[in-house]
Amino acid sequence: IRKNGFQKRIETKTNSRDEIGELTVVFNDMMTRIETSFEQQKQFVEDASHELRTPVQIMEGHLKLLTRWGKDDPAVLDESLNASLTELERMKKLVQEMLDLSRAEQISQTKELQITDVNATVEQVRRNFEVMYENFTFTLKEDDTDLRALIQHNHLEQILIIIMDNAVKYSGDGTEVDM
């Protein structure tokens, strides 16, 4: 067994029912479980890094804004501090969710669902992306419809952030994102 050798297995003889044959089958099963565990751990770290990167970028954008000129404008200062605190709270929730997943706890999702104001959440994400990506224009095509959804607020934020992140990433030469 080497660093990257978890995919290798011991050959089993077709009709081997002796102790060595049984031990080979058990060993191969154990290697499969170990390989699966390592792959899940690798995926978990990749997902965690991706999920935590965006709130950190949003907070960094707000702090840079304050450093440049925003600290002298009470409205900008207030918005940036509130956005940073919101992102900090979201990071805490993400970390808790990751801990729950790593412990393989079965948490009932239905107990945590809440009626969420979709319009307000979209607007909040849009404002954060304007701070993060100053060279982009994010246009929200508003509808008078009061949209609400039965969803965990932080999950809706995560979905919107992933969509917006991809819109920026794959915009090519464009600098406008219509929402």
UniProtKB/TrEMBL annotation:
GO cellular component labels = plasma membrane
Q: Which residues form the HAMP domain?
A: 6-39
UniProt-listed InterPro entries: HAMP_dom (IPR003660), HATPase_C_sf (IPR036890), His_kinase_dom (IPR005467), HisK_dim/P_dom (IPR003661), HisK_dim/P_sf (IPR036097), HssS/ArlS-like (IPR050398)
Question: Transmembrane: is it a keyword of this entry?
Answer: yes
User: Main localisation, per the record?
Assistant: membrane
Q: What Gene Ontology molecular-function terms does this entry list?
A: ATP binding; phosphorelay sensor kinase activity
What topology does it adopt in the membrane?
Answer: Multi-pass membrane protein
UniProt-listed SMART domains: HisKA (SM00388)
The identity of this protein, by name, is: histidine kinase
